[in-house]
UniProtKB/TrEMBL annotation:
Record keywords: ATP-binding, Nucleotide-binding
Protein name: Heat shock protein 70
InterPro entries listed in its UniProt record: ATPase_NBD, Heat_shock_70_CS, Hsp_70_fam
Pfam families assigned: HSP70
Domain of life of the source: Eukaryota
Keyword Transferase tagged: no
Species annotation: Nymphaea colorata (pocket water lily)
Length: 26
């Protein structure tokens, strides 16, 4: 069972942004 779609999208975007920030930092 998934939580609200917006919550899932928010988590996905947050994770993606974190990964991008790390990649840009290196």
């Amino acid at each position: 069972s998934k939580p609200a779609g917006n919550d899932v999208i928010g988590i996905d975007l947050g994770t993606t942004n974190s990964c991008v920030a790390v990649m840009e930092g290196k």
